[in-house]
Specification:
The structure is a homotrimer. Chain A is of the alpha/beta class. Helices cover about 45% and strands about 15% of the residues of chain A. Chain A has a 5-stranded parallel beta sheet.
Amino acid sequence: MTDSDELPLSLVLFSGTEDKLQAAAVLTAGAAALGRPVHIFLQYWALEAFRTGHIDDRRPLSPEAGEFGEQAVEGMRAAGQLTWSQTLVQAKEIGEVDIQACSLSMDLLRMSAEDLDPIVDGIEGVAAFYVNAGDGQIVFI
Amino acid sequence: MTDSDELPLSLVLFSGTEDKLQAAAVLTAGAAALGRPVHIFLQYWALEAFRTGHIDDRRPLSPEAGEFGEQAVEGMRAAGQLTWSQTLVQAKEIGEVDIQACSLSMDLLRMSAEDLDPIVDGIEGVAAFYVNAGDGQIVFI
Amino acid sequence: MTDSDELPLSLVLFSGTEDKLQAAAVLTAGAAALGRPVHIFLQYWALEAFRTGHIDDRRPLSPEAGEFGEQAVEGMRAAGQLTWSQTLVQAKEIGEVDIQACSLSMDLLRMSAEDLDPIVDGIEGVAAFYVNAGDGQIVFI
């Protein structure tokens, strides 16, 4: 099998800023729509963004966004654009998207399984992440 | 074809900080010099950096650069080092470098085709990005 | 050879924040434990973090970490968790991990070979980086 449509895409989500979560959600939805399995591995501040009861919180933007960026993102919200978590839910409906929390980051943030939003499918270590990634692309966001 | 020299390199440019744009330009020029096709996909604040009439603006550095970093980058400028946009122009002259604006980010920033610096070759969606990336590496900057 | 265990993993370390260095060290150790060669290419502020005599300095976190993040990382330190540089040393003991400083970034930061912590194996240019990366994944952190 060397068909690129069959290779999984693995995203390591590290950053919890709203703009990067949006970018990650769009990259996920696009790959899922093309029939590619997508594995998402949640680390650090991205994991914090998937805390149960807080997945719809407004999160900060990257510092470089500036006031212009804030206004642009606010305009998207006002226009009823899907949020990053809604985009991920949709991606899971149309394709094969697996979201795993990094076990080491769970320890760092003192989170346990019940602290995770139901969109998260499980908890895994780095070794499992690499095994699932296989030969596919790995993107750190 | 499994020759790595033939696989495209795809860079998703998200960040509009000068240091990351420089890093991206150097990675682009290096791959182009080795004969690899390079696809650049402009999102969010990186897209903003390619706005016509503003591509030579000084842009902020990553917050972690600090005063030391500012001085280092200033020293490079004073020494006549190529800017990131000049490096990209050069990379296009020596190799196959295609720069595309992400259509969703165009909407976010309310930009249209005439707002893009001529170094940008076109506008595409996420699906086209993945098709062009094929089995090659994808790097998010 | 198309066995994914044999493909190298290449990490471009750009960011010098402690959280991203930790994430990079964990990804390195995990890949090394699976028998994959890991190539690390140090650029910009990550290179600064490998300055001799300063590799154990406490470094800033990403801005988005906030006070909560500072406390989480402090808790890990207090619990005797390995630092990122200790994790890299361990990864080099169990696997094949090669750490190279980017020659252009050496110029930017006005560093010479003797300014590099001994954990760094050498200095190379972008072309050498791509040749060593081959068809393996490239991850920018």
